[in-house]
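> forwarded from #structure-qc
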């Protein structure tokens, strides 16, 4: 055994860990055996987005378009220049058309979803699902979101009868659970009134895997072929069984109702099942799972982080409320798609929230064709590439005083001055987030409903700077987020 360990150590340190050095690419020195993956006590580890930001800051001193790190023995490129990021996402997309995220359709069919699928399957499915998020559909869904937002007001008012301090991340998670349940599946999840709702619990588990699952995800990324041979899964069986059962039950009800009665996400998936596309139940469940989980987590975190920043910046909160109060009477004080579309300062506030706290701190791409950067650096086929969004959004060379919350950064004239890839909360190019308009819409409606009726202030436990739990795949407040809320007279 000792001989095997010694030989393995020599192979890794003298050959595998020399990949970037041999090519003259700046890299972060790896450690045996995990490369640049975090080691040490759990209490000293940081969220992956913050870790990648530290790598970015060190590598950016080089002149290259990208630098290098290692995941176990696998070399991974880290994008450093915004022009290179633009080329990867748009101009040279054909070289980077896959995300390179592990999925195992045979053993874990729900892992084969729109987020993970390779180009050949993704492009067909994306084209068929895009009509779900047209302007007409957005207007229809805004009515449903506004109804849930009214329930949110009632729920917060009821909560305040027990005290002024509210765990805002949990409340926002319950709101977005009910929104997506209604808009996508026509299901009343009722999690605003039932905090222990199973839908919310299952959606959370997708983005907050166990320590063992997180290690497995690293392994599956580094060694995807071996992971498939070992029958490894992205989602545990309980999550898979739950969402498959929900989809099957929903389809049974829809088949009895007749086609097109609701015209929502599930209706479109059922139409694809009955068309030449012939989606299977597993394929439908896979899209339903990722839409529900991603929509729940990204929007609930954005809402919570936004209210956190507004609680610390009273003048900004007041300005948002004044805009809401100025525009709402034109629409009989109803929250509509048209009314929120007029709220331009609210857009700026949400964008600044997404800059400081992008839901996904990094984008991932796989090199599908060999690629040469403008500097002559070569990226080999099947190389994985990270675009560190959180790092870019916090780069002081791009955003002065990046830790300060300044919505005016997103005034039109300021946006025009910056590189188009300086702000990437939903990605860019053909593989950007398909539901970004829906996510922004539900975030705006939730904020309008709350800020019209309530003021938010820091509580005694509210942090002045945010720390993130490393247990979540997305940026999530560590230990919850408690704010004081006061109903306005």
């Amino acid at each position: 055994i000792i001989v095997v360990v010694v030989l393995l150590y020599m192979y890794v340190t003298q050959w595998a860990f020399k990949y970037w050095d041999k090519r003259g690419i700046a890299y972060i020195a790896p450690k045996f055996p995990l490369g640049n993956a975090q080691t040490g006590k759990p209490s000293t580890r940081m969220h992956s987005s913050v870790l990648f930001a530290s790598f970015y800051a060190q590598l950016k001193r080089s002149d290259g378009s990208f630098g290098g790190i290692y995941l176990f023995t696998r070399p991974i490129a880290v994008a450093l220049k915004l022009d290179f990021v633009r080329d990867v996402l748009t101009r040279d997309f054909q070289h980077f058309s896959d995300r390179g995220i592990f999925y195992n359709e045979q053993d874990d069919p729900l892992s084969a979803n729109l987020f993970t699928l390779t180009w050949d399957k993704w492009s067909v499915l994306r084209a068929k699902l895009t009509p779900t998020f047209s302007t007409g559909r957005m207007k229809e869904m805004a009515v449903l979101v506004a109804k849930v937002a009214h329930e949110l007001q009632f729920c917060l008012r009821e909560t305040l009868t027990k005290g002024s301090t509210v765990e805002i991340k949990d409340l926002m998670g319950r709101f977005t659970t009910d929104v997506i349940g209604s808009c996508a599946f026509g299901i009343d999840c009722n999690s605003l009134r039932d905090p222990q709702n199973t839908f919310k619990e299952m959606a959370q588990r997708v983005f907050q895997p166990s320590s063992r699952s997180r290690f497995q995800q690293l392994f599956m990324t580094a060694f995807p072929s071996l992971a498939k041979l070992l029958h490894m899964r992205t989602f545990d069986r309980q999550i898979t069984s739950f969402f498959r059962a929900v989809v099957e039950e929903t389809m049974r009800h829809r088949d009895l109702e007749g086609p097109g009665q609701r015209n929502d996400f599930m209706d479109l998936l059922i139409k694809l099942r009955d068309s030449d596309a012939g989606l299977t139940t597993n394929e439908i469940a896979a899209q339903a799972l990722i839409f529900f989980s991603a929509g729940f987590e990204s929007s609930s975190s954005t809402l919570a982080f936004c209210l956190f920043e507004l609680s610390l910046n009273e003048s900004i909160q007041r300005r948002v409320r004044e805009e809401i109060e100025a525009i709402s009477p034109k629409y009989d004080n109803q929250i509509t798609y048209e009314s929120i579309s007029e709220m331009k300062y609210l857009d700026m506030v949400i964008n600044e929230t997404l800059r400081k706290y992008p839901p996904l701190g990094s984008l991932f791409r796989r090199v599908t064709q060999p690629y040469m950067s403008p500097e002559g650096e070569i990226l080999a086929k099947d190389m994985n590439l990270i675009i560190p969004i959180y790092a870019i959004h916090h780069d002081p060379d791009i955003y002065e005083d990046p830790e300060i919350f300044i919505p005016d950064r997103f005034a039109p004239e300021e946006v025009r001055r910056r590189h188009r890839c300086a702000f990437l909360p939903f990605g860019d190019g053909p593989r950007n987030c398909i539901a970004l308009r829906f996510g922004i819409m539900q975030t705006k409606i939730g904020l309008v409903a709350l800020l019209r009726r309530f003021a938010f202030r820091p509580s005694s436990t509210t942090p002045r700077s945010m720390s993130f739990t490393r247990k979540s795949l997305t940026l999530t407040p560590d230990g919850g987020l408690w704010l004081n809320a006061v109903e306005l007279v």
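QC bot note: The first helix runs from residue 2 to 14. The two ends are 73 Å apart (CA to CA).
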